[in-house]
TrEMBL record:
Gene3D superfamilies: Nitrogenase MoFe cofactor biosynthesis protein NifE, C-terminal (3.40.50.12380), Nitrogenase molybdenum iron protein domain (3.40.50.1980). SUPFAM superfamilies: Helical backbone' metal receptor. Keywords: ATP-binding, Iron, Iron-sulfur, Metal-binding, Molybdenum, Nitrogen fixation, Nucleotide-binding, Oxidoreductase. It comes from the Archaea. InterPro entries: Nase/OxRdtase_comp1 (IPR000510), Nase_asu (IPR005974), Nase_comp1_asu (IPR010143), Nase_comp1_CS (IPR000318). It comes from Methanobacterium subterraneum. This is Nitrogenase protein alpha chain.
Amino acid sequence: MPYELFEVDKEIPDRKKHTYVKDSADPTDEIPKCNTTTIPGCMTERGCAFAGVKGVITGAVKDVIHVVHSPVGCTTYGCGSKRYPTSPDLPNGDKVPIDQFNLKYIMGTDLKESDVVFGGMKKLRQSVLEAAKEFPFVNAIYTYATCTTGLIGDDMDAVAKELSEEIGKDVIAFNAPGFSGPTQSKGHHVGNLTLFNKLVGTKEPPETTPYDINLIGEYNIDGDLWVLEKYFDEIGIKLLSKFTGDCSHDEICWMHRAKLSLVRCQRSATYIADLIEEKYGIPYIKVDFFGPRYCAENLMTVAKHFGLEEKAEKLIQQEMAEIQPKLDFYKEKLQGKKVWVFSGGPKNWHLPEPLKEHLGMETVAVSTMFEHEDGYEKIKERVGEGTVILDDPNSLELEEIIEVYKPDIILSGIKEKYIAHKFGVPCVLIHSYENGPYIGFEGFINLAQDIYASIYNPVWNMLEFEETPEDGKLKTESGVSSEQKISSEKTGKEVV
């Protein structure tokens, strides 16, 4: 069978179903078990459903204030945790008066024990009114359920409807308490559905053109959106609405007027593209702009839809001519290096082929926190023989993958970065980025540069080893076995 039970999981044998090692001789329908609740006893790296809606879907909207209906801990978690930069410009010509407003400010109801007993709706109402008074320039107020308010049963939709009429602005309630789904993916779904039902089709854009598109599932991590926007501008395509990087509240309201939708993060945002197509007849294309070849192919696909192939071809040739010398340099330096891709969802199947094709790197492991069956099918198709594909990994499994598969670098999130460092393995953030943007032609060069700088950083030659009397093996102060060596290609000499 293609499944493997890690040594650290002997006491939780159900984990075997979540760990698949690619073997071409196995049936094509074999994939890891996924989109289920975490097995008790596992120290999961997942986020919750609230994180999915606030941390991903709505957190990038730049002209709303977010009111989290929760004890203070959840409110704190929802603030400033993502690199979603914004421009101040709004479609009506106004500007958001506070720079990076969406990253700097969040409000909460600060629920106490008495609110759990007697209900928190009064406090929610008070907090929304205070938010409207404190930030009169916002165009809407979004409010969020959390585990506590989900359990006590506060009717947030009723409060939102009442206050929308009283304030004269949209007040939208997002009912995705943390426990409402097995992963943050549930929050993505709720966020998509709520925004579609409450907003799409309620306003009209200032103007339209025959080349208007919705860019869906693009959150402008460290400026990704602006890279793509530049490409589309040069081709002659206009971004009518973004969902939701550098997005204004009103843009979501007129998504129904686009001529085509592009879905970039296909795990978090295909839902709203489906709904818009079903109700308004607007087709959508799933796109991938990570890596030069994928970027070129997808730009051409979009351009063909509008009959703009010549402009797209010219842009692609210009961009490739500019990055090719750098691409050749990094491929020479990174050829044969082993990489472990550990992302939330789609980057796990976006990245393995570009890393191999353009940099010569070998993906030895892929793991995700909230991917579904269709995503694992794509991952399996795009990785090589013997690659371990792991769903919802726990902390001990992370250590075992490092020891067994010996990646030269890990592309992951912030929670995993410092575990990797303790084992003497470099890590580049693939969720919030080190020095992005990472998308598009120049973005892939930024990623390659960060991978190169991390692997060849001389700090890995400064690890100190000490003898431990328990087993006689050499270990670092962080507990790394002498079997976890630092390659000579990485450091210039082998540490044993």
